[in-house]
Amino acid sequence: MIEKTKDYAVKDIKLAEEGRNLIHWAEDHMPVLMKIREDFEKNKPLKGLTLGCCLHVTKETAVLMRTLKAGGAEVALCGSNPLSTNDAVAAALAEDGIFVYAWRGVNTDEYYWCVDKVLDHQPSITMDDGSDLVTRLHTVRKEGLEYVIAGTEETTTGVNRQKIMAEKGELKYPIIAVNDAMTKHFFDNRYGTGQSTIDGILRATSVLISGKTFVVCGYGWCGKGVSMRARGMGANVIVTEVDPVRALEAVMDGFRVMPIKEAASVGDIFVTVTGNKHVIDEQVI
Predict the structure, then answer these.
(1) How far is CA 123 from the centre of its chain?
(2) 83 & 112 share domain
């Protein structure tokens, strides 16, 4: 049963204390954002603004949400992925006065219900992770466009979607491509995704990585990170890449490179990090 009020929709508000402990741990490891919060608390640069956010509801995101609220903003948050929401964190944020509409395991209808609840707050700034919020605003919820002055997008997939909209003349307000920042490429994509992908595989399977043939499809920033981590754990890494320059870079970094059809016959573990569908399709399988 989901607990729903006019201010939030979360799995269990009683999980808030557990969520606060997780958030405090994250705050101890995010000194730059905490320094920004100190300034925000004094100067309130976001006073009078409403921020509509569609992001992964994790302890790290919670530190950002608290910082935005400290800056004077009204903050509404929904999850950008059905399976990444931490229910304890969502409960803690709800108790902190942030409008949260997120719980782990939402279905498609529930997902967009949560997105719509954020848009009900008539945000003046959007913060998106994958462009679902922006796309919803430009299609089903067009009446909310008049309130928006700008937005941010932090994923390659989302930026690509919005660039297509801009080229067609459909994007109605400016969006900052946070994804294009070099610090994002390095610390989020290469190191963050590189580590979390391996972590996810280990949690799901408990497989021994060492000695396995590990196929990484795509050698962008995420692919580089995953390849590096897999090799560090003793895997025999194969890279598949359609861009010849990136494929050459993978070779120069010491990885074997081959088409996915060849890699499919020898690989034990496969990870696609291209942002595209059907990288491993029925023909390959």
Answers:
(1) 20
(2) yes
- How far apart, in whole angstroms, are the C-alpha atoms of residue 222 and residue 227? 9
- The answer to whether the CB of 205 falls within 8 A of the CB of 228 is no
Are both 111 and 242 inside the same structural domain?
no
Place of tokens 């050459």: 248
Supply the pLDDT for residue 250. Answer: 98
Q: Identify whether 92 is part of a domain.
A: yes
Q: pLDDT digit string (tens) for 60-89? A: 999 999 999 999 999 999 999 999 999 999
Nearest in space to 113 (alpha carbons), one of 86, 83, 82, 158:
82
Residues 160-201: tens digit of each pLDDT:
999 999 999 999 999 999 988 888 888 888 999 999 999 999
Q: What's the structural domain count of the chain? A: 2
Q: Which domain holds residue 222?
A: 190-272
In a domain, 185, yes or no: no
What pTM does this model have? 0.84
Q: Which residue is listed with tokens 């608290």?
A: 66
- Verify that 172 and 206 share a domain, yes or no: no
**Residue 261, H or E segment:** helix 260-263
Query: 12 in a domain, yes or no?
Result: yes
Residue 183 vs residues 178, 211, 261: alpha-carbon distances, Å? 9, 32, 34
- The CATH number given to whatever domain includes residue 262 is 3.40.50.720
What DSSP line would sit under 41-80, residue for residue? HHH-TTTT-EEEEEE--SHHHHHHHHHHHHTT-EEEEEES
Question: Residue 159: which pLDDT band, with cuts at 50, 70 and 90?
Answer: very high
Do 28 and 159 sit in the same domain of this protein?
Answer: yes
Cβ partners under 8 Å of residue 125, min gap 6: 49, 50, 51, 52, 148, 149, 150, 151, 152
Per the domain annotation, does 280 fall within a domain? Answer: no
